[in-house]
Design goal:
Blueprint lengths: L19 E5 L5 H13 L15 E5 L10 H4 L1 E5 L6 E5 H7 L3 H8 L6 H7 L2 E3 L13 E3 L2
Parallel strand pairs: 1-2, 1-6, 2-5
Antiparallel strand pairs: 3-4
Length: 147
């Protein structure tokens, strides 16, 4: 019996195969889009997924300003941040974030779905979000993913 066939192979930086993919966010629901992007950044769609290694792909999200929220969430959903000072809670709606910083809504949704540690920070840097259809990553020959 060949015992080598029973060994579990863990991915590492040397054996990981990272690709570039484009996801078009136009007309897509924010949460569903963010969960797919977070999964691809993490590498969960690959057969050699290893939880403690960055084995995910580089993800380019285009048309982030055309993302959709269902129901009345665009005006009712409230994002809370704190300045650090007493009484420093600040509230913002999804509509205001989309108007002021179109990529902020997608980035905030995806970042919340990644691990809260050094690996999560490293994975977040593999995501590139652009408000329009243009992006400067043509040299990497990214392939388009349909949701």
């Amino acid at each position: 019996m060949n015992t080598l066939s029973y060994k579990t192979v863990s991915a590492n930086k040397a054996t990981v195969n990272k690709e570039w993919v484009i996801i078009d966010a136009e007309g897509k629901i924010l949460g569903r889009l963010a969960s797919v992007v977070a999964s691809m950044l993490r590498g969960k769609h690959k057969t050699n997924f290893t939880p403690h290694v960055d084995c995910g792909d580089f993800v380019i999200v285009i048309n982030a300003d055309k993302v959709v929220l269902t129901g009345e969430k665009m005006s009712d959903k409230v994002y809370v941040r704190h300045t650090g000072f007493p009484g420093g809670q600040r509230f913002t709606t999804a509509e205001a974030i989309l108007k002021k910083n179109p990529i902020g809504l997608v980035e905030k949704a995806v970042k919340g779905m990644l691990p809260k540690n050094r690996l999560g920070s490293e994975l977040f840097r593999n995501m590139h979000v652009y408000p329009g259809a243009a992006h400067p990553h043509e040299a990497q020959k990214p392939k388009t993913i349909e949701l």
